[in-house]
């Protein structure tokens, strides 16, 4: 895999996970206002963007497993960091949504 292909894959991961992160923050705002159904939908939307990033990541892993040489560059490290941070943020948001609902139910 040449440098340009790797950079394009990295930017795809960054773009998709960045979109997801923005949506997760919208979900936090919806939670604060008590719009739990909206927050839940936003978190599903964020998951769709994260799946796109994950597919790009999986494609790279499959290429590597198939013998394609992949030279790791700092942009790919950044892309992976972006994706993993967003995945963790979404998990926290799901927990917070459950807690918001539980507190409001009392």
TrEMBL record:
Catalytic site: 78 (tele-phosphohistidine intermediate)
Binding site for Mg(2+): 81
Positions of post-translational Phosphohistidine modification: 78
InterPro entries, per the entry: PTS_IIA_lac/cel, PTS_IIA_lac/cel_sf
Domain of life (superkingdom): Bacteria
Cofactor(s) named in the record: Mg(2+)
Keyword Membrane in record: no
Stored Gene3D superfamilies: Phosphotransferase system, lactose/cellobiose-type IIA subunit (1.20.58.80)
GO molecular function: metal ion binding; transferase activity
Sorted UniProt keywords: Magnesium, Metal-binding, Phosphotransferase system, Sugar transport, Transferase, Transport
Any GO BP: phosphoenolpyruvate-dependent sugar phosphotransferase system
Cofactor: record remark: Binds 1 Mg(2+) ion per trimer.
Protein name: PTS cellobiose transporter subunit IIA
Organism of origin: Streptococcus pluranimalium
Primary gene name: celC
């Amino acid at each position: 895999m040449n440098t340009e292909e790797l950079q394009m894959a990295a930017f795809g991961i960054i773009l998709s996970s960045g979109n997801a992160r923005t949506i997760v923050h919208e979900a936090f705002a919806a939670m604060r206002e008590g719009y739990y159904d909206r927050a839940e939908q936003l978190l599903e939307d964020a998951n769709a963007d994260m799946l796109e990033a994950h597919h790009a990541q999986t494609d790279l892993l499959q290429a590597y497993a198939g013998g394609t040489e992949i030279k790791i560059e700092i942009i790919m490290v950044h892309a992976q960091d972006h994706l993993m941070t967003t995945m963790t943020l979404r998990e926290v948001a799901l927990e917070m949504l459950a807690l918001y609902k539980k507190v409001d139910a009392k």
